[in-house]
Amino acid sequence: MSGSRFFTALLFIFLLVPSTRANAGEEQGSFLDRTGIDIHGFLDLRGGSRIREDDYQRDTSLLESRLQLDMSRAGDSFTLQVRADFIYDDVQEDTDLDLEEGTGYLDLREANLLFSPLDLIDVKIGRQILTWGTGDLLFLNDLFPKDWQSFFIGRDEEYLKAPSDALLISLFPDFANIDLVYMPRFDADRFISGERISYYHTTLGRLAGRDAIIDPLTPNDWLDDDEISLRISKNIKGYELAFYGYHGFWKSPIGMDLIQQKAFFPNLNVYGASLRGSLIKGLFHLEASYYDSKDDTSGDNPYIPNSEIRILAGYEQELAKEFSAAVQYYLESMRHYETYQATLPPSVHPKDEERHLFTVRLTKLALNQNLTLSLFCFYSPSDQDAYFRPTVKYKISDSLMITLGGNIFTGDADYTFFGQFEKNSNIYAGIRYSF
Amino acid sequence: MMKKLFLLVITGTMILQAAAVFGAERPSPDKIIEMANDASYYQGQDGRADVKMTITDKAGGVRIREFTILRKNTGQKDQKFYVYFKEPADVRKMAYLVWKHVGKEDSRWLWLPALNLKKRIAPGDKRTSFVGSDFFYEDVSGRGVNEDTHELLKSDDTWYLIKNVPKDPDSVEFVYYHVWINKTTFLPEKAEYYDKNGNLYRRVEAKKIMKIQGYPTVVESIASDLVAGTRTINRFDNVRYDIGLKDRIFTERFLRRPPREVTQ
Questions:
Q1: DSSP labels, B230-255
Q2: Chain A window 120-179: which residues touch B at a Cβ cutoff of 8 Å?
Q3: Rounded CA gap, B228 and A250, in Å?
Q4: A229 closest CA partner among A283, A164, A154
């Protein structure tokens, strides 16, 4: 089904379903008011430029206008929600409308129906943004799709989360909250493909961009290539404990199919747990997960990622009035490193067994909280690379906000996680009118 | 039946308290402050209000915040709050959840609808501006009665005037503050804050009080920052008490799915 037809169909549903607000005697006002539809949104214009020469990309890293419309309609027993972005993007080469990859003039963020069939059950069906876990910009047990491209080029932070087409069933028995998410067809990350962000191409052994855009084999059979996410959570005296499970695929195409010579998404199961609560004068969070790489359980296939243990610990505290700091330590540890080393082709640069990463977030509010200064840093001592995200946001009025920011990558080597993006370092500016 | 009996007992207790007040025995300053705290923040078992904040800066620029607030008393002096934002547009549908624990740090969460994320917020200085206004978090949810020592400066036909000195001076920006408490309603109607030079720099006033379901209620208040020259007017509409809010409203489930009590 084409995106626009889907969208039109949803609008019709909106108009047909009776609304409590329409019945509440608010007969005055516009047509939309009378139909009970509540429309809000924003218009966002932003542009950005690379600060280093990149042979494989345009200097302009971002140049787009975006109109987001957010429509919701609450009935007696359900809520309908549609949130869509209409985009003019000057940088994107692939302008075909694709609601999964988010290319083209429309990015449908949400289109869902929420209802409670029974007292202790909520069901949300349709396109939705899903998030869980305790990490700050680090995700262990959250295997919902991310949009790394948006994140690295300077779109608003909310665009790091890409939408899922899913059925969410939440159960609320006394002993815990249970959230079960079924995605009937795999929702991949909007991964770094080379189209806008250059990356390290393992086979070529060099940086690549628009000259080597990744076109992976994507699992796309309905019901066969499905994903399941589960969370069981409980608040015990202010301490939030959760257990997680996931069955699906690695979210970026980090496997290599040697026969077809194409990247693919290997099978993956994840199991994990997290804990969050107060500590001394602040908040701590702990999270761990086991990445069970199902297509390479013994770790002897160098073209499929090894199984991994991932661990995260974080602490956050207000240091002064309207100034807070948050630190995190994160570890990725490969399970079968010796086997990996033994089977790795000599041309490929081996990864370290352990990747250590530290993050710091500093946030300062000023001018009656209308000015937000923020700096987020990733630093990996094992990879010898780093990523800095400074942002300045100022609210000129209740409806108008300007943003300035940067995405600065640095690293000793071209093949480490942040080091490979060095030439994508950019600065950007944006203005947003909200209504 | 139980409810009526309960009401009867409560009313009885209040009459007895009132009798004590008007009798020969004058309540201690600590008792007056405690009663003022109850009158301001604990009326009924629960309550709701639509709040409109008008923030005016020195140059006359105006910013508006609109939200609906739900409150439930959950035993002893603990409470739960649910704040659902409606204006301005960029914070619309965000929700703020507080589990207030007297004597220790509150648990606070922010709901970010665009990310479908319940974000836990680190404990913060309670004498920080609430949503950029001249009101502090503490003005919204109450200041612990044991955090200051209280001295009765004056008592006339209408007011108790009490001076409050913080027990931990480093934790607050004031050296002391005066509060005028109405002898009939026990509502604090004016508070004035003084800095270390003895200068008055901040004032919070109740401008309009109405009796709602028998409870004297502040329906308009003003906070003024006399140094920065900014002020915020708070208007409370559709105030209701004892609406039977369920405990489960103050959980993640109802952050994800805002309850009828805040959306309508």
A1: EEEEEEEEEEEE-----GGGGSHHHH
A2: 122, 128-131, 158, 161, 170, 172, 177
A3: 54
A4: A164
- Secondary structure tally for chain B: helices H, strands E: 5, 13
- Cis before B27? omega within 30: no
DSSP state of A192: -
Q: Could you report the per-residue pLDDT of A354-408, keeping only the tens digit for each?
A: 999 999 999 999 999 999 999 999 999 999 999 999 999 999 999 999 999 999 9
Residue B217, beta-bridge partner list: B210
pTM: 0.89
Put simply, the chain A residues between 309 and 328 with a CB less than 8 A from any chain B CB are 316-318, 321-322, 324, 326
Q: How far apart are CA B68 and CA B63, in angstroms?
A: 17
Quick check: helix, strand or coil at residue A17? coil
Name the residue among B55, B105, B257 with its Cβ closest to that of A122: B257
For the record, the structure tokens of B115 come out as 């990310």
Token digits for B126?
């309670």
Rounded Cα distance, A115 and A43, in Å: 30
pLDDT confidence tier of residue A31, bands split at 50, 70 and 90: low
Q: Measured between alpha carbons, how far is B59 from A143 in angstroms, rounded to an integer?
A: 49
Yes or no, beta carbons of A172 and B253 under 8 Å apart:
yes
Query: What is the overall mean pLDDT for chain B?
Result: 91
Q: How far is CA A334 from CA A170, A274, B20, in A?
A: 33, 20, 73
> Mapping DSSP to helix (H, G, I), strand (E, B) and coil, where does residue B89 land?
helix
Q: Which phi-psi region, left, alpha or beta, contains residue A205 (left: φ > 0; alpha: ψ -120 to 50)?
A: left
Please check whether residue B219 is in contact with residue B209, taking contact to mean a CB–CB distance below 8 angstroms: yes
